[in-house]
Write a structure and sequence with these properties.
By secondary structure, this protein is α/β, with parallel strands linked by helices. The chain is built from 32 helices and 31 strands. It has seven domains: 207 residues, Up-down Bundle (Four Helix Bundle (Hemerythrin (Met), subunit A)); 146 residues, GAF domain (Beta-Lactamase, 2-Layer Sandwich), CATH 3.30.450.40; 66 residues; 168 residues, Histidine kinase-like ATPase, C-terminal domain (Heat Shock Protein 90); 131 residues, Rossmann fold (3-Layer(aba) Sandwich), CATH 3.40.50.2300; 140 residues, 3-Layer(aba) Sandwich (Rossmann fold); 127 residues, Response regulator (Rossmann fold). It is an enzyme of class 2 (transferase).
Length: 1214
């Protein structure tokens, strides 16, 4: 292949591409030829076979249609045969056209023959059909018709058979064409694959040879160029370093590129390779020149640096020797400089003493302190003394071990070289410098030592002379200064005596003024303290005196519930007995709480008495064991009691109060301990531990429970406080127990102390005096002076139970109830403001109505059911039952739901009133014009004998169904099929209610609502949304935009729709049809509404769960339980179909707020009704519950009627 290697690159590429193109053309030729052959077979199938099959099927279908029409013709009456005759004629024409069309598409003689057979059979069938038709028209007898029809059936079967044979022939012909196409496809595919594989193999071989002939020389050239580039970059960096003064760098001589002229190809790659080889030789010569130049510059620089180093060291040393420094500081700094500058590891400087004629060490550098280290050397003694005597530098290279060691924190070593340099000034010895190093001192460093020798000698001599002069000068100045100071001190002493006399007088005046201020402040504080004490005592006395009033009704409750629980007459069910037990248990808990509050109040007011008597300690412990061992075993705890030696058998104290304190402490220990033990120990504390001023007995209650943080030790002894006071606390209780226990202990002249660590348990210790005689025996109580004389409570005469049931509420104003006649027009005014009620009563009389006045919600409901007034004027802010509750009660009753109700109140909740079915809403304060409008609205509602209802529904059938459902003799119904038609009707006349579908043909229901919103407020009409689709959360929010004027109901059943329409039209139920009465009663039946609904009760108090589940189960609701928020989330996840949740707020692990938020985060429960239950009664609780995601809010204790009302509202709406 030598000839190929010498070809130009363009020729190589041309040869490769030409070969590939040739194979591609050959492949394309075979592919196009084969596709043409396959296409010919496909054209035959498309243009002939498929149309032939379709035409044959059409012929068969027309014969079948002709046959069915002929049979119908035979069975029809003569009067109705004309239409069928037309159809028969049409089918015959279609058969003839299809046969002619088939004849034109046939291409084979066999097909022509088959078509002829079908045509012959068809003609025979049509002729037979014509004969049968003629016989029918001619009135032939039945037997003749039966025979003709049988013969015609055979002819029709012959037609079907011939048609199917024709289709079978066409299908077989199609299979032949398909097999021929498959054979052509297989042959073409074999040729194409062979040609393609050959083309790929040749292309790969050509690509390999072309790539190798081009890439190999280029790769060698690239490597050479890269080396030349790196060499150029290195020379550039070297030039930049030399320009910056850095001569430490060097350049490497690059390698020459070797090329063999004999073996190198003669194409473009070979020529490029020879050119680069020449360039690499030039580059290697340039690198050698750069290297020689760098060496020359480096030598010059080193000589210059040596001279600069010598000068710099001399100058720096001279700078250290200048200035007014102490001799010690100067020699210390000079020695440090010499060692650091010369790289010596250790050094010492000795000064010559003229008096003792020896050398004394004055400064050291890194010299290790040793006991055998000499600090003085005589002349000729040692290396230092010898250098001083000879007055020349002495160097040692082989230093013996341990001589002048260089030591660090991790080790020490002996220097390799020592130099001793004598210091001479004017040929007089000044001192010696001794230096040690790990390396040899260079000639340059020794030269520097000679220069430093002279400068250091001069500096030390000058410093000594200056020091001598300074000492003499300081001695003189000190004597002069001492005399001056003595004079100034004498003068200052006299001035201070005068100033102190003046200050004493000023201080005496200030003390007198402050004494007056303290006396005034003390009197003010005493007055305030007395006032606070009187207020506190008044409060405590009030609570203490309430003992009888609180205990008496509770005592009756406990006695009666206990009798019911025993069920002695066996006339109660098992569930009723459980109810009674729950009542009794809750009453006992309430009694305990009342006792705690009353005890605390009595202690604070000084009303609590203590009866001291002998109490046996062992008997006390036996009682405690009897009471608490069962409790501890039930909780899985150990319970130990110990009486240590030295404890007296009997002490004098109030046994009842002592037992009360210990019961509270042990109860708390069991309550706050999950596992471990509770121990009670009696011992006599030593004087250091005893907090009492007299000998005492200590009874310690220890547990292994949760412990109390150090910062809350004082908090737990405060009333109504706990270590964990959050809404998610795990332990209940009022927080009074420890406060009362400490107060009782102090009342017994003792105390209760706490030792605790969070997570490690607690120890409460009760300290009581051993001998009560030290404090006085017998009964005693803290004295308290009453603030005010006792006030007698006036007695109230209550009616008996029988009278209360029979009598109506007493009139609060002189109204017209006694003179009211049946059927007379009257208005019931439910208003607790009697002055405003009197004004309304006068206006009622002015409008020719009789007036009845109720001062509360309960009396209003009673009077409404008794008198059935024509209309009601209602306030919201009523005692006991508010206006909303009254409205719910009225509208839930079949007897009163038709009565028009108009609100006059100070609240701003028009939407809620209209939603509940009110005819109007006015906000206080009102003027006479507004009151006239109120009565006008009432009279208009009463005057209309026929109420107008507008149904907006585009489905006519649905609209007719609603018309039939809602139609009454006193209801006029108008139907609008579009939004525009509805708006035209609303503009032309006034309607009393609208039933609106959201999905209209011309506009959406939202657009209709927006247009109604633009009406004048007096013309706005109640709207009931009646839609078959589910509303999304966004749709609901958009609908609430019309809250002031529109009532939104999700009414999907006929009962609900009828109930809502009758509510807003104020229809009387008694005048309706029986079936409609039943439907309304079913819609109002609260028990039927609640039946089968799943309710989840979330509460950590099992008594509350039992009570709520009992009343809900009576309504046939399915009750599920959860003890905390986390368990509620699990219940919702695993229990499908929950309809409503009753959520307590204060629970362990996860409180109600957190649980509600977590539920709302799940899209599945975005619309699940959640009713919050809480014992709190703070103003912002409702807002906080709703903000967390609750649907509504109810306070504990739960009002059962209000709970059922809320359940109906939320389950009805859902």
């Amino acid at each position: 292949m030598g000839w190929y290697a010498n070809l130009k690159i363009g020729n190589k590429l041309l040869l490769g591409y030409g070969t590939v193109i040739a194979f591609s053309c050959l492949t394309g030729y075979f592919g196009v030829t084969g596709l043409a052959e396959i296409k010919s077979h496909m054209d035959v199938m498309h243009d002939h076979l498929i149309p032939s099959i379709e035409t044959a099927a059409m012929i068969e279908r027309h014969h079948q249609q002709h046959r069915r029409t002929l049979l119908n013709y035979l069975m029809e009456r003569p009067q109705r045969r004309k239409d069928l005759e037309t159809i028969l004629h049409h089918e015959e024409v279609e058969i003839q056209e299809s046969l002619e069309k088939f004849s034109t598409t046939a291409i084979h003689p066999v097909e022509h023959r088959a078509i002829g057979e079908v045509a012959t059979a068809s003609k025979e069938y049509l002729d037979g059909a014509a004969r049968l038709k003629a016989a029918v028209d001619g009135g032939a007898d039945h037997e003749t018709l039966v025979d003709d029809n049988a013969r015609l059936r055979g002819l029709f079967t012959n037609v079907e058979t011939r048609t199917k044979q024709l289709v079978q022939h066409i299908v077989e012909e199609g299979h032949q064409h398909l097999e021929q196409g498959n054979t052509s496809y297989s042959s073409i595919r074999t040729w194409l694959i062979t040609l393609l594989l050959g083309a790929i193999a040749i292309a790969l071989a050509m690509a390999f040879f072309i790539t190798r002939s081009v890439a190999s020389p280029i790769r060698v050239v690239l490597d050479a160029v890269r080396r030349m580039e790196e060499s150029g970059v290195a020379k550039a960096r070297l030039a930049e370093a030399i320009a910056a003064g850095d001569l430490s760098q060097d350049v490497t001589v690059s390698e020459r590129l070797q090329v063999d002229p004999e073996t190198t190809a003669r194409d473009e790659g070979g020529m490029l390779l020879r050119a680069v080889a020449g360039m690499s030789g030039i580059q290697a010569s340039l690198d050698a020149a750069f290297s020689r130049m760098t060496d020359s510059l480096r030598r010059n620089r080193q000589e210059e640096q040596a001279r600069d180093w010598l000068k710099s060291g001399t100058n720096e040393l001279s700078a250290l020797l200048r200035g007014d420094r102490r001799l010690e500081e100067m020699v210390e700094k000079s020695l440090s400089f010499l060692c650091e500058y010369l790289g010596a590891g250790v050094g010492a400087l000795y000064l010559y003493n003229d008096r003792t004629r020896d050398l004394e060490i004055a400064a050291t550098y890194a010299l290790a302190r040793r006991e055998d280290l000499k600090k003085r050397f005589g002349l000729g003694e040692g290396l230092v003394g010898e250098a001083a005597r000879e007055r020349k530098i002495i160097r040692l290279t082989d230093v013996p071990p341990g001589y002048l060691p260089i030591r660090s924190a991790i080790g020490e070593a002996t220097p390799l070289n020592i130099a001793a340099v004598p210091l001479l000034h004017d040929n007089l010895l000044v001192g010696v410098v001794e230096l040690g190093s790990f390396r040899d001192f260079t000639e340059r460093e020794l030269e520097f030592l000679l220069h430093a020798q002279e400068g250091l000698s001069i500096g030390i001599s000058v410093n000594r002379s200056r020091k001598l002069v300074d000492e003499l000068l300081e001695q003189t100045q000190a004597q002069t200064e001492e005399l001056r100071v003595q004079q100034e001190e004498l003068q200052q002493t006299n001035e201070e005596l005068e100033e102190r006399a003046q200050m004493l007088e000023q201080q005496r005046e200030q003390i007198r003024a402050k004494n007056r201020e303290v006396e005034e402040t003390s009197r003010a504080l005493q007055l305030k303290a007395g006032e606070l004490e009187r207020i506190s005592t008044y409060k405590s006395e009030f609570m203490a005196n309430m003992s009888h009033e609180l205990r008496t009704p509770l005592n009756s409750l406990l006695i009666l519930s206990s009798l019911l629980k025993e069920n002695r007459e066996n006339n109660l069910t098992e569930k009723q007995v459980e109810y009674a037990a729950t009542i009794n248990s809750s009453g006992n808990d309430l009694l305990t709480l009342i006792n705690d509050i009353l005890d605390l109040s009595k202690i604070e007011s000084g009303k609590l008495e203590f009866n001291y008597e002998g109490m046996t300690v062992r008997a006390l412990f036996e009682q405690l064991r009897t009471m608490f061992i069962p409790v501890a075993e039930q909780r899985g705890l150990g319970f130990d009691t110990t009486i240590e030696e030295g404890v007296p058998e009997e002490i004098s104290t109030d046994g009842q109060r002592t037992q009360q304190i210990l019961k509270n402490l042990i109860s708390n220990a069991c309550k706050f301990t999950r596992e471990g033990r509770v121990a009670v120990r009696a011992y006599v504390p030593n004087s250091e531990e005893n907090p009492l001023p007299v000998p005492a007995i200590a009874i310690q209650v220890s547990d292994t429970g949760i412990g109390i943080p150090a910062g809350k030790h004082d908090l737990v002894f405060q009333a109504f406080q706990q270590a964990d006071g959050t809404t998610s606390r795990k332990f209940g209780g009022t927080g009074l127990g420890l406060s009362i226990s400490r107060q009782l202990a102090r009342g017994l002249h003792g105390d209760v102390l706490l030792e605790s660590e969070e997570g490690k348990g607690s120890s409460f210790t009760l300290y009581l005096p051993l001998d009560h005689a030290a404090h006085g025996a017998g009964s005693h109580s803290a004295e308290a002076v009453p603030l005010l004389p006792p006030v007698e409570k006036p007695s109230e005469k209550k009616p008996s139970g029988k009278e209360a049931d029979v009598q109506l509420p007493a009139p609060v104003l002189a109204d017209d109830r006694e003179q009211l006649k049946p059927g007379e027009r009257s208005i019931l005014i439910i208003e607790d403001d009697l002055s405003f009620a009197s004004i309304l009563m006068d206006m009622v009389h002015d409008h020719d109505f009789s007036a009845i006045v109720a001062g509360s919600g309960e009396s209003g409901i009673t009077l409404a059911h008794h008198y059935l007034p024509s209309a009601i004027i209602l306030d919201v802010m009523l005692p006991h039952i508010d206006g909303w509750g009254v409205m719910r009660s009225l509208k839930d009753s079949l007897k009163t739901r038709h009565i028009p109700v108009h609100f006059i109140t100070c609240l701003e909740d028009r939407q809620k009133a209209l939603t509940m079915g009110a005819i109007g809403f006015v906000t206080k304060p009102v003027n006479s014009k507004q009151l006239d409008e109120v009565f006008t609205t009432i009279e208009h509602s009463l005057a209309k004998s026929v109420k107008k209802l507008l149904i907006v529904e585009d489905d006519r059938n649905e609209a007719k169904s609603m018309e039939a459902l809602l139609g009454e003799r006193d209801v006029a119904i108008t139907i609008a099929g579009t939004g525009r038609e509805a708006m035209g009707l609303l503009a032309a006349e006034r309607f009393d209610c609208i039933v609106l579908d959201l999905g209209l043909s011309d506009m959406s229901g939202f657009e209709v609502l927006e247009k109604i919103q633009s009406f004048d407020e007096n013309r706005r009409i109640p709207v009931i949304i009646h839609s078959g689709r589910d509303l999304s959360r966004e749709d609901e929010q958009r609908l609430r935009h019309y809250a002031e004027s529109i009532i939104i109901k999700g009414a999907k059943s006929p009962e609900r729709l009828l109930n809502e329409v009758s509510l807003f039209l104020h229809l009387v139920e008694s005048g309706m049809e029986p079936e409609k009465k039943r439907m309304i009663r079913a819609a109002l039946d609260s028990e039927a509404m609640l039946e089968g609904k799943k309710v989840l009760i979330v509460d950590d108090d099992m008594r509350n769960i039992f009570s709520l589940s009992s009343i809900l189960s009576e309504k046939k609701m399915i009750v599920l339980e959860a003890e905390n928020g986390r368990e509620a989330l699990e219940r919702l996840t695993h229990e499908p179909g929950i309809d409503v949740v009753l959520m307590d707020i204060m629970m362990p692990e996860m409180d109600g707020f957190a649980a509600t938020r977590a539920i709302r985060k799940d899209p599945r429960f975005a619309r699940l009704p959640i009713i919050a239950l809480t014992a709190k009664a703070m103003k912002g609780d409702r807002d906080e519950c709703l903000k967390a995601g609750a649907s509504d809010y109810i306070q504990k204790p739960v009002d059962v009627d209000k709970l059922f009302s809320l359940l109906r509202v939320w389950l009805y709406g859902s």
